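Sequence design from tokenized structure. All designs in this work follow the same two-part layout: the structure record, then the generated sequence. An example of the structure record is given first.
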């Protein structure tokens, strides 16, 4: 299948993201300048991204940054105040609902009936649509590490077991899109590892996953693309798994004179790079191919004392963006 490449940037100098996906694929989720306002307060502003079949998209940000509201906009639990939210090419949720992707959802604390068993909870929930057999429910419970023959009431479940039950209800109808909001809450290290393997398995089955989590290491480990949200804005997007050509990094540049630095700064801004630093020591943030960068710098005619990549992991990038690490 032919593939196409798109470099994403905008006027707010967000870092470029190189995406590779089937050129004929329709996004499962597409947001274009979507925002949500409650009264005079904007909770989400100008959010734009696309999620394709079989991709894992991660959302990270401080508490109150707008992650949960963004997820609710996608599911239709709240309506956007601006922009568009499109599912499988359908923007108007009131029409052609049969063409919308099925969604499995774990957001905030899913309600359960405490005096019933896990399986009985799934049976009652499944009775709404009558699409799932008891055998399929039992398989979903086993897939998340619960025993369908466990007759204990849910009130005796640990927090981690409740989280696994929420996952089971989210996948039992075999959704096309799985939305997980802090799914690791209450899970021990083994449970987190099991969840990781579970998400990668549903990805292999072609299910798209939208994941919001504070566990940066896990997000970086499994996501195809990551967005950092701060004060309602997506302030950074990047692809942690791409090759060297589009790998997210900082290029450190040491120049000879302030005039050289001014030239490079002007050039970088025109190229949608983010420039950090003052004087003759600069950093450029972006999807930087080092050979091409060096060629461009030489073409500018500036005197370069040193240029080298300074790769950053998600934690470093995150702390820089949300203000916890000096740049």
């Amino acid at each position: 299948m032919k593939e196409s490449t798109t470099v994403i940037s905008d006027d707010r100098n967000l870092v470029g993201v190189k995406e590779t996906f089937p050129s004929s694929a329709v996004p499962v989720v597409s947001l274009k300048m979507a925002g949500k306002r409650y009264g005079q307060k904007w909770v989400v502003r100008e959010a734009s991204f696309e999620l394709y079949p079989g991709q894992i998209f991660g959302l990270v940000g401080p508490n109150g940054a707008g992650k949960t509201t963004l997820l609710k906009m996608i599911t239709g639990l709240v309506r956007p105040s601006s922009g568009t939210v499109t599912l499988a090419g359908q923007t108007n949720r009131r029409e052609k609902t049969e063409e919308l992707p099925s969604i499995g959802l774990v957001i905030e604390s899913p309600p359960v009936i405490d005096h019933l068993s896990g399986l009985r909870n799934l049976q009652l929930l499944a009775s709404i649509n009558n699409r799932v057999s008891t055998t399929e429910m039992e398989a979903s419970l086993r897939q998340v590490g619960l025993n369908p023959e466990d007759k204990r009431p849910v009130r005796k479940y640990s927090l981690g077991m409740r989280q696994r039950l929420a996952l089971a209800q989210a996948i039992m109808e075999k959704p096309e899109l799985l939305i997980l909001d802090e799914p690791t809450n209450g899970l021990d290290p083994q449970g987190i590892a099991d969840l990781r393997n579970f998400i990668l398995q549903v990805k292999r089955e072609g299910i798209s996953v939208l994941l919001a989590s504070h566990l940066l290491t896990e997000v970086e480990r499994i996501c195809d693309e990551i967005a950092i949200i701060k004060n309602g804005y997506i302030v950074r997007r990047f692809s942690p798994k791409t090759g060297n050509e589009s790998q997210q990094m900082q290029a450190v540049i040491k120049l000879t004179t302030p005039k050289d630095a001014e030239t490079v700064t002007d050039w970088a801004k025109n190229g949608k790079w983010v420039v950090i630093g003052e004087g003759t020591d600069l950093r450029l943030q972006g999807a930087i191919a080092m050979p091409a960068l060096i060629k461009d710098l030489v073409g500018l005619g500036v005197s370069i004392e040193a240029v080298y990549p300074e790769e950053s992991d998600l934690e470093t990038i995150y702390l820089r963006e949300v203000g916890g690490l000096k740049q």
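The radius of gyration is 22 Å. We note this feature because it recurs in several other targets discussed in the main text.
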